[in-house]
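Summary for the funding panel

The consortium committed to producing paired sequence-structure records for every protein in the target list. Below we show the first two records in order, beginning with the earlier of the two.
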Amino acid sequence: MDDQPTPSKRPVLAACLAVLVLAVGAGAVVFWPDREQAATATPAPSASASPSLPVSPPLEKATPVNQVDALLDAQAQALVKGDEAGWLAPVDQKLHPRYRTIFQNLRALEVTSADLAIDEQPKMDGAAIKARVWLNYCFSGVDCPAFRADANFGAPKMIYMLTWTPRADSYVITGMADSGVPNHMQPAPWENAALTFAHGARVIVAGPKSQAKNIKRALPLAEKAATVADRYAGQFNNPQKKYRIYMADDKSWKTWYDDAAPKWSAAYHRQFNGVGSDIVMRAGKVMSGTDREITELIQHEMAHAVTLNGNRNRDEGQDQWLVEGIAEYIGYQPRKPQNTDSRDALRYVQSRRGAVKTMAVPQLAEKADDLTVTRLYATGHFAAGCMADQFGEPKMITFVQMVVYEGMDLDPASQVAFGKPFKTVDKTCVNWIRKQL
């Protein structure tokens, strides 16, 4: 199943509101068996060979596909070891810039595991071989699953169509093209252009060279946000060993991950089949804000990593109000919802759409208007705040874990977490929200 990006938007309000609106997250910030080799028995050496013993037949010469497969294995090992020469060894000079870019970006992103594998029976083009090749990879901080030739399961992966040409008793990669296979993880930010990096203790921030100043500015803010996210990661029993943030210029924003973000968004959190995730920010929308606003946005996106990464819920979209609500709750820490822009936002929405009738606001459509988006984010924020205020933060977190992470329905989760039916909790919080406004 494709992991959809988790956007975060703090709604764009009418000009009459004296509130800074910044599209954030995918949202507006008002601010818002390795292929295992078969074991082989190795005979013990003997001092002399007896002529009476049978002689083993000579090994067959490796087939072209065997040779290519061995070269791919060696390349993957070179990538993990940091051996650039080994990574480039089977690559034609004309492709060195592209391969060097991939290598240097992945090393800077702390790649810890890689597997290059042929997907299907290669095709012969004269003496050349054309084969679809998968690059499975993992970064630091995750347990990397074994190779699996499926874009929707297992480790994150890239898929390419490579051409191998015989040269000097071996094969060289002379062509690299799109695979023609749909892959929600492509194009990744790191695969086509050299990136600029800033490394912190908990965060890596990367982006095109044009974003160098924004990357430098964002790193200390992201490190600050990580301390808050880490605290909640402990409560959710879902520690994140490293956060990776990509700062996109306008061009990159429209291409990375196949233009995955909703049209109304300005940042999003992208899961990878439950094996890690990325945070992508649209620099032009986000970085014009104040340091506090940017930090709150980053905390929101990191909150998605804390509450969603590795989840067993295959349809968290139906509880989007809670997914975004807990992210807003963590994102605005230590401020309570009634002391944030969410209060003005919800007041404004209710003046045009009526009072809140339930916490469980319907899921957003991709083309949802600003008022609808604002209502979901602000209502979700107040909902999380209410459950923490009225029942205690630990019980609220238990409820979120069961619904968002485990995929439990609202009522049974409410019975377990709060000892009350969801209908009762919902009514309590609707009244609480009205009083705060």
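The next record, for a separate protein in the list, is shown here:
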Amino acid sequence: MMMPLFAWRDNSCDPRICSVKKLERAGMIRVAAKIDKIPKSTLLLDPRSPQALSPADRIAPSLTVLDCTWETLEKVDVGEITRKRALPFLVAANPGHFGRPFMLNSVEALAAALYIMGEKQQAHDILAKFGWGIRFLEVNAEPLEDYSRAANSAEIVEIQSHYY
């Protein structure tokens, strides 16, 4: 069974090239127009979170990404969503930020989280929708494997220190 994916979009990017919109058209993600429409029990990928995502988070009933600009992110109030996690060090493979650490687009963030939580096939499937997508797994193969074997957030932070 695949983990349900959600996104909140601020609609700042061009919908013709938006990675989340492409997943939505493929029926792989549900997009919420308002944050309060996201399930409260979801695991929210939020780079502002002090806790790193780990395999221990695989118990989450769903996964949500904030698809917005970095400027918008600073102002976003996630309301009642309490389970928030930040991704560890990874390098972007998307055309806009290729090779830049921590500059993942929304699909890369979702795929990284899925991979770390043991949903490797689903991570592959969502990345396969993009010509550059599988390259993300290649570029980050070693850290993703290491992160996926960690027991908890503290181990993720320790592993991350070897890459960053």
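Regarding this second record: Helices lie at 19-25, 70-73, 106-116, 120-127, 133-139, 141-148, 153-160. The first strand starts at residue 5 and ends at 9.
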